[in-house]
Amino acid sequence: MTFVDPVCLEGQRLCLEPLSQDHLAGLQEAVTDGKLWELWYTSVPHPDQMAAEIVRRLALQAQGEMLPFAVRRLDDGRLCGMTTLLHIDETNRRVEIGATWLAASAQGTGINPEAKLLLLTHAFERLKCIAVELRTHFMNHQSRTAIARLGARQDGILRQHQVMADGSYRDTVVFSIIDSEWPMVRRQLLHRLARREAL
Fold first, then answer.
1. What span, in angstroms and rounded, lies between the C-alpha atoms of 188 and 183?
2. Distance between alpha carbon 149 and the CA centroid of its chain, in Å?
3. Which of 12, 37, 103, 192 is the most buried (most CB within 10 A)?
């Protein structure tokens, strides 16, 4: 299996489906839940830009740089977001989990940690990665907290790392999980999800 071979990853709450043009209408609907494109500290496509975003992600997959997914809830069957493995480095067996957005109604439901569990399991156990990165905007405190709760360690901050659409600079916070840490991270994630299920 190469790092960009399409694969469906299914959990208790969601299925990560290989991204395709067939997901367009569902993703356009999902992104309006919370008007996510209005968040200044992240880059989420407007419904009118979703078709181009799907084309962009699939082109990066064809170039061996990204494995994109649509996120489908299993409780109602609706799409609720996108996520990817990106910055793929097969030689050094490293990937990044990112380019993720979730509809407002899916946030805080256990979907995000389960999606991360599925992606991390795929990366460490099927692709045999030695490290997985997670990155976010310095000002995205919700994302930084969620990444830290996964058990990832902060590696550092890349100052003025990117120029945002509005011309402002993004300081990028870099986190990672290495293969020796994966068993503990996996155990913590499973415990969190089991506790949520029991509520």
1. 9
2. 15
3. 103
Dist. CA 82–CA 42, nearest whole Å: 14
Answer yes or no: is 199 within a domain: no
Cβ atoms of 162 and 140 closer than 8 Å? no
Q: Which residue has the tokens 């067939």?
A: 22
Residue 186 falls inside a structural domain: yes
Q: Are 162 and 174 in contact (CB under 8 A)?
A: no
Tens of pLDDT, residues 108-166: 899 999 999 999 999 999 999 999 999 998 988 888 998 998 889 999 999 999 898 78
Assign residue 155 the CATH number of its domain. 3.40.630.30
**Residue located via tokens 């008007």:** 35
CA 171 to CA 135: how far, in whole Å?
10
The number of domains in the chain is 1
pTM over 0.90: yes
Nearest to 156 by CA among 170, 141, 142, 176: 176
CA geometry: angle at 74 spanning 47 and 97, to 5°? 60
How many Å apart are CA 92 and CA 151, to the nearest integer? 22
C-alpha to C-alpha distances, 141 to 85, 138, 144, 174, nearest whole angstrom: 22, 7, 5, 13
